[in-house]
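Data availability (excerpt). All sequences and predicted token strings are deposited with the supplementary files. A representative entry, Germin-like protein, is shown inline so that the format can be inspected without opening the archive.
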Amino acid sequence: MTSLPISFLLTLCLLVIPSLSSDSDPLQDFCVASDFFFSGLGIPLNTSNRNGVAVAPANVLTFPGLNTLGLSMNNVEFAPGGVNPPHSHPRATEAGVVIEGSVFVGFLTTNNTLFSKVIHAGEMFVVPRGLVHFQWNVGKGKARLITSFNSQLPGSAVLPSTLFGSMPEIPNAVLTKTFRTDDATVNNLKSKFAV
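Structure token line:
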């Protein structure tokens, strides 16, 4: 009588454990029609925007050779004072190395603890999957990172534009209550992120 529940639990555990990984294991060695070379990580980027940051992704959409391999990379360039705003990658852990400059890197745990440090050329950081994080160029000149992800398409949820620039819009009542502010402030923020 007790063997039925134990075997059921064992079967359930064996079915659930593989579903906890990032990208699934490939069913083939590689995608045959792919190009296995990419030159987009070394090009200079245009950082003349409001945040002073530009990202050139090397993911399965821009570099088909990554198909089924479970990894991707970004070239991230910052103007002086540039900020990669708080964001998260729902499908990947991020690791990065500073190539040039000094960058303040931080991430928040699920209990709202900030882990942060200024890192310099040759130093590296890691951000666990799904956690909110940011980077800020605190040096006098430009800064550059190369980041990598354990997913061919990590996704990115950028908090300011997600909250204040969504279509359709999040109702003001939700945002005023969440941020303990008024309609005028929420409308002002929405105007800065309108698509």
